[in-house]
Amino acid sequence: xxxxxxxxxxxxxxxxxxxxxxxxxxxxxxxxxxxxxxxxxxxxxxxxxxxxxxxxxxxxxxxxxxxxxxxxxxxxxxxxxxxxxxxxxxxxxxxxxxxxxxxxxxxxxxxxxxxxxxxxxxxxxxxxxxxxxxxxxxxxxxxxxxxxxxxxxxxxxxxxxxxxxxxxxx
Length: 170
Description:
This protein has helices spanning 70-73, 98-101, and strands spanning 3-13, 18-23, 36-40, 45-56, 59-64, 80-84, 105-108, 113-122, 127-133, 138-142, 148-152, 157-160. By secondary structure, the protein is mainly beta. It is elongated and about 60 Å long. It is found in: Cytoplasm.
């Protein structure tokens, strides 16, 4: 089963078992719709029922059912909170999860092998694909329609147009 990360427990909040969660989802309010999350402890995955959700600055503050003390949750600082793909947000046409494009083959519009998509940087304006070229160099490609021509999730192929000057940057 596929899991998607929605947040990371950044710290405890108070002494009653609440945690501050740094969201790794586009919409922090998303936590209001979640009934449960999966805590990845590194050795096991625990299903936690969400009892209450509040928001503070850019963080979600979660209270899990049955965890009522700081001592019960403190050991999970820095751990990921996941959801199953079924519980993930519904995607609009043309949208996809970052994990689905990582490790995609990147080819040019001429059909030449360019490299492998290694990471996605989320910036304010547009995302940026981090591509490791066939020569082992790292190239940053802006996710704009002039540069990213096609994303095929099924075959894990991203077709790109290399904008003039993009490869001149060292």
